[in-house]
Design brief:
The complex is a heterodimer of chains A (135) and B (57). In chain A, 75% of the residues lie in helices and 0% in strands. Chain A starts with 5 loop residues before the first helix and ends in a 6-residue tail after the last helix. Chain B is an all-alpha fold. Classes of the chains: A mainly alpha (135), B mainly alpha (57).
Amino acid sequence: MYILSEQERAVLKRIIKYARYDYYKKRKNDFEELALYEDILCSKTDLQTELEEKMDEALEVEKLEDLFKNEELRKIVKALAYDDKLVLSMFYVKKKTDEQIAKRLKISRSGANKKRLRLIDYLQEECEKRGIKYV
Amino acid sequence: MFNNYNLSDEEVLGIIDQYENLIDKYSKNSVTGRIDEQLKTDIIGRIYMVLTHNRER
């Protein structure tokens, strides 16, 4: 039987960790879906309703850029991360409060507020850079 | 190290048996807490590939 030295044990552990990292990296999309359902599975409310709400929300977020007439602005919004689009969609389209957004994103109320304001600043900066009149 | 990454199949299998607990620990799915068999297979495959990569083919 081959006995591992201290150094070899450390290398073996590294091999295992990297193998795990690569495995999850390959399956990133699958696990993003899992994350979508994770809080449904942990929730005590009606699963079917929660699932439908989550799917509706995902559809609305994906179509957020369609609300903008300006093509350049649409591109900027389309390039935002899912969570950023979710914040904008919840606040401006669904008229939710910062507290409701915070609950959905599992962050603090002030965190949700800061995130939203930072997004607006970012959009304004991008519009100025591209010479778009911010509406 | 690892006999210059030239271990025999028996030696690699011995290492995998010896460190099965460690492999199981890193094979657990972080969402369900259960062992992901596909992940475990991948890890074992990777261990085998690395520890024998200098073997003459």
